[in-house]
Task: inverse folding
């Protein structure tokens, strides 16, 4: 068996290596094609598994909201709680049998080597399956993407990809999973490149886009395929009404950080409870069950509710109540530690906010405002842009869902406004990798903006060019330094005298007496600092310098010695700026 696997690996490597040399960027395209197919099949397998669990629990599959509405009130409470306990058991097994292993595909792509743990991912996916099938308020797309990325990681390791290509292959798998879940191949590719990879470079974006497109084509070939959201035709928007969509962007930008802060609050509360994982997830499920007694729409990820908002009239009070209960249910489910995605619940929150805003505007200007569902569609994109810090991805996703050019102008305005307002309030995101990247970007900006003039101290070891040998030796005896700075009569920096250069003349005192500082001078202007130099640039100078301090001059054209900067002062400033 081992020999057979080895032969298969050699065959696959040879097949693609002959067609596409590894040194060329397009060598990843055939692999991306394979991963696109695999990602779609993985997504289908997870959906069928979810349907199978629903058949076992309820006797049929379909909308979780409809299932909750058909159950008696006490079963609505029991099912999510029981599912949470079982899901918690799988998480305990994942921690026990695969401790410390990487299971998050974003971490494997952004800061890892592309390796994803098989036992961790499978056990966590089983946990997610239990949470979702029993009514947990969380998205199923998280596990779909994770499993698709896992398959890419396994294939890449099997064919012995180097870490750089393995990370890109895993990114292709993630994009295939997102596309399969949302029927949005371009947005799926931009999701991975904009959020996970952090930059849209063609060498990366090309294979990721190929994987997304192939996954979408594969999904369409299977019977029963239908988009996640059934979007109604988007109407023409009058010029003045565009201002209202800007207002919707403002509201989404204000609301998204509060939504993410609420999720973090519940995570912190559950973490401090110190309950075992099964009990923690069981309590979270029980709270969702209690909420569903009054509002069955809190079950599931919100697909069916969003579709209903887009196609059926809703009373504003009902929309508001469902929105509040759904936000709490999502916060409780994710806060308890349940595995799943919050991408789809985020789309629901945006749709509900847009629906409420549209209804309010319709009351004020009934004959000049479009139907509320138009605001729900744009609200999905605006809230997503603010929550993910990825406005381009959000715009493309809603556009691909609607396939309407009329949606683009209000959608772009709303998404961009929401993004900038959310960033201004709090630079956060529902993805840790984006938060980390924003933190690093801010640190780099602080490093570039902090100048050396703030750290300059007097230079105590300075002598003129004509200083005698005795002056040099006295200075070295008084100060435990490696270098003495030498200046001319106008206090312009000329260079340094090194302690080790004096050692050769100590044996011949008569020769030493006649020598001056200029005779030992090292004219080195490379290891100097200027007042306007940034902290980051100065740190690079210290990395190539052996001493504990560097001289500060006015400029290269006017090298007047202003003082010194100590390495300890620079490092203190560096760590202070980085928290």
Result:
């Amino acid at each position: 068996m081992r020999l057979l696997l080895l032969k298969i690996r050699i065959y696959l490597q040879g097949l693609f290596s002959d067609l596409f040399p590894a040194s060329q960027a397009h060598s990843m395209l055939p692999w991306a094609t394979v991963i696109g197919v695999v990602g779609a099949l993985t997504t289908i397998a997870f959906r069928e598994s979810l349907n199978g669990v629903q058949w076992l629990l309820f006797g049929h599959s379909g909308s979780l909201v409809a299932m909750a509405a058909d159950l008696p009130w006490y079963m609505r409470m029991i099912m999510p709680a029981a599912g949470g306990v079982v899901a918690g058991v799988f998480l305990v097994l994942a921690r026990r049998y695969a401790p410390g292993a990487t299971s998050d595909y974003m971490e494997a792509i952004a800061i890892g080597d592309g390796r994803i743990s098989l036992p961790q991912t499978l056990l966590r996916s089983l946990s997610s399956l239990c949470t979702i099938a029993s009514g947990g308020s969380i998205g199923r797309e998280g596990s779909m993407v994770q499993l698709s990325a896992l398959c890419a990681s396994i294939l890449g390791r099997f064919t012995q990809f180097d870490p750089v290509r393995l990370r890109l292959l895993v990114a292709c798998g993630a994009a295939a999973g997102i596309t399969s879940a949302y029927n949005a191949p371009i947005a799926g590719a931009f999701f991975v490149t904009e959020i996970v990879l952090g930059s849209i470079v063609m060498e990366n974006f090309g294979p990721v886009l190929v994987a997304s497109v192939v996954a979408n084509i594969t999904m369409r070939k299977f019977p029963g395929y239908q988009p996640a959201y059934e979007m109604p035709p988007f109407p023409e928007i009058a010029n003045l009404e565009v201002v209202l969509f800007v207002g919707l962007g403002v509201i989404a930008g204000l609301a998204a950080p509060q939504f993410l802060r609420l999720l973090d609050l519940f995570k912190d509360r559950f973490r401090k409870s110190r309950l075992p994982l099964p009990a923690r997830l069981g309590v979270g499920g029980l709270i969702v069950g209690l909420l569903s007694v009054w509002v069955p729409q809190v079950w599931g990820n919100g697909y069916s509710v969003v579709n209903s908002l887009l196609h059926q009239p809703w009373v504003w009070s009902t929309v508001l109540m469902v929105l509040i209960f759904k936000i709490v249910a999502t916060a409780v489910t994710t806060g308890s530690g349940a595995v799943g995605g919050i991408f789809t619940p985020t789309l629901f929150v945006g749709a509900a906010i847009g629906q409420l805003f549209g209804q309010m505007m319709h009351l004020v200007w009934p004959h000049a405002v479009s139907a509320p569902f138009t605001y729900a569609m744009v609200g999905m994109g605006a809230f997503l842009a603010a929550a993910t810090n990825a406005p381009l991805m959000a715009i493309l996703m809603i556009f691909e869902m609607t396939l309407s050019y009329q949606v683009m102008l209000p959608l772009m305005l709303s998404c961009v406004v929401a993004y900038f307002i959310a960033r201004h309030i709090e630079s956060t995101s529902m993805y840790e990798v984006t938060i980390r990247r924003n933190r690093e970007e801010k640190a780099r900006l602080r490093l570039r903006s902090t100048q050396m003039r703030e750290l300059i101290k007097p230079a105590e070891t300075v002598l003129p060019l004509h200083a005698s040998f005795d002056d040099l030796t006295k200075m070295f005896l008084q100060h435990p330094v490696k270098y003495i700075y030498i200046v001319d009569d106008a206090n312009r920096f000329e260079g340094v005298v090194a302690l080790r250069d004096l050692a050769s003349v100590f044996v011949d005192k008569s020769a030493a007496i006649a020598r001056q500082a200029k005779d030992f001078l090292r004219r080195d202007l490379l290891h100097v600092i200027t007042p306007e130099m940034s902290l980051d640039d100065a740190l690079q100078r210290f990395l190539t310098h052996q001493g504990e301090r560097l001289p500060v001059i006015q400029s290269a054209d006017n090298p007047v010695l202003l003082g010194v900067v100590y390495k300890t002062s620079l490092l203190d400033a560096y760590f202070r700026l980085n928290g």
Remarks:
- The chain has 24 helices and five strands.
- Confidence is low (pLDDT under 50) at residues 19-24.
- The radius of gyration is 31 Å.
- The chain has three domains: 20-220, 242-447, 452-577.
